[in-house]
Amino acid sequence: MTDCRSEAAEALDDARWLALTDSHARMFRPGDRPRQREVREADERNYINDTDLSSMLTHIELLGLPAE
Questions:
Q1: d(CA 18, CA 8)
Q2: 3-class state of residue 65 by DSSP
Q3: Which CA distances in Å does 33 have to 29, 30, 36, 40, 43?
Q4: Cα–Cα distances in Å, from 62 out to 33, 53, 67?
Q5: First to last CA, the chain
Q6: Distance between CA 1 and CA 23 in Å, rounded?
Q7: Where are the alpha helices (DSSP H) in 13-49?
Q8: How many angstroms from the chain centroid is the CA of residue 25?
Q9: Please, what is the average pLDDT of the chain?
Q10: pTM
């Protein structure tokens, strides 16, 4: 509507349309924006260490073998 605010003000006989700006289309006012998510540090316990990964890759061909 910001592109047509003059036409809207004239057609509706309401000068308030002339004050319309792009900021009216925002989802949140600058002070009402949702707070940013907290950045958490990575927990090393959730990752495979280099030694274990190397051991797993040494035996990678076992993944394709039948279960029996």
A1: 8
A2: coil
A3: 6, 6, 9, 21, 29
A4: 52, 14, 9
A5: 69
A6: 12
A7: none
A8: 19
A9: 84
A10: 0.37
